[in-house]
Amino acid sequence: MSLLDVRDLTVTIRTDRILSAVSLSVGEGEILGLVGESGSGKSMTALSIMRLLPRLAQASGEIRFDGEDLAGFSEAKMCDLRGRDIGMVFQEPMTALNPVRTIGDQVAETILLHTQSSKGDAADVARKTLERVGLPAEKFPLTRYPHELSGGQRQRVVIAMAIALRPKLLICDEPTTALDVTTQAQVLELLTGLVREDGLGLIMITHDLAVVAGMADRVAIMRQGEIVEEGETVPLFRQMQHPYSKALLSASTHVPQREQVRGGSGDALLAVKQVVRDYPLPRPSIFAKRRSFRAVDHVEFELHRGENLGLVGESGCGKSTLSRAVLALEAVQGGSIELDGEVLSTASGDALKRLRRRIQVVFQDPYGSFNPRHRVERLVSEPFFLFDTQPTVTERRKRVEEMLEKVGLTSRDADKFPHEFSGGQRQRIAIARALISEPAIVALDEAVSALDVSIRAQILDLLASLSDRLHVSYLFISHDLSVVRSITDRVLVMNAGKIVEQGPTEQVFGNPQHPYTRSLLAATPNLEQALRAREAASDGLAH
């Protein structure tokens, strides 16, 4: 008998059908990968299992957990089940954690709610659970707050909350999407270890096929609220039948077509010379000398005209700090940054305004960088304030419409609001805004990390096409090494504030010299390598 057995689950909200006859099962000690794009119904399936559907949602079908039909459970009985027998890990740990409560209190809360333990006993269990997920007491006392931890550490706290009472089933909804590759590898190894050690069932919801190939026993692929294909991991990936499954697989390994791959020769458009960026730290005592943290340590590199340059590294390595300095959003304590021969790092007034017109940025979350009350026309035309002579209303409208069409949207989209678009369409609007001032350089800060594989492939194709047509240079900042490899000419590898390795992209990826670069590449999920490893392990067991 399966631990979880879902049969013909259908969910409607008013007249819209969200899920249609979804059937799946998970056994003890088994990992089920639930794969699909945004809007495919993955998260709604998880919420249905947890009985946490929106107020207007209506569900039918059967959900049996440990032999019992959850449809007959009262809300009080479901509250007792959640956290004790079924745990859930959400995508964004900072929103799943209470910012004003310590991590110890939040892990202990689960124990206090579901058992008769005293506060002291609950704190002891919380401490052991946090140590189990890689947060030892000497470095991470129970008195820490969420904002004092990195993204990967916060995700470990959320996992600790979910497994504190050793549940029978764990549901993880995109738990590694925003994490760098080494942290992601650690979290995935942790989750797999919990399954093997405790025998719990795990539903891994993700759009990353390489992650699923490396850890799942079985895979179910969802599209528009239906499961279109399901089976054991290796046979399913090797012999995909459904056109949608094949399209997902193709998009996950997609490499944009470029007219030419440019080298690192010629005039330097951007020259970063021995840049240093320090942040002051709080004094340990009132009379102690103030210390500082060096986020960028004598970094030096060049970006050439028409070149795509990648900047990779883990969270906290200094990538974002360096990018803010390059964009003249933060001052530097040493060195200089030159744009086309002019010093950008010390420019001010009209000179800074003129230089900023030549370097624009596309952020990871376009919705967060847009004013939701403004229409697309106003959002895309924002860089015009950098111009000495402002375009007329008619000219501004014409240029906005032309740019929207260049990025694959329509002129009619200029009159819409950001909430009327999908994530991929909003990213196209962000690209249009970055390019409308005709910059020489566009910095792309994790611009595709939160997108589905098919949307990501479309955006990468768009960026490659625009680079060729407009001769713009990209500074591509990302923790996704597969994306960087597919679109950049050269790559910089950053660790602890320093550039530890740089060179032509294929050379660095194909023959890494620095141990840190090798560790990054080893931690990056690779679909084909994962499948071969599982096939080899299966052959070994057979013999």
CATH architecture of the domain at 30-42 and 78-252: 3-Layer(aba) Sandwich
Q: How are the strands of the biggest sheet laid out side by side? A: 6-7-8-3-9-10
Structural class: alpha/beta
How far apart lie the N and C ends? 29 Å
- What is the CATH homology-level superfamily of the domain at 30-42 and 78-252? P-loop containing nucleotide triphosphate hydrolases
Q: How many alpha or pi helices? A: 21
CATH T-level topology of the domain at 30-42 and 78-252: Rossmann fold
The percentage helix is: 25-40%
Reading off the top of the CATH hierarchy, the class of the domain at 30-42 and 78-252 is best stated as Alpha Beta
Low-confidence stretches: none
Number of strands: 20
Average of pLDDT: 88
**Oligomer description:** single chain
Largest sheet: 6 strands, mixed
Rg estimate, integer Å: 25 Å
**How much of the polypeptide forms β-strand, as a percent range?**
15-25%
- Globally, the shape reads globular
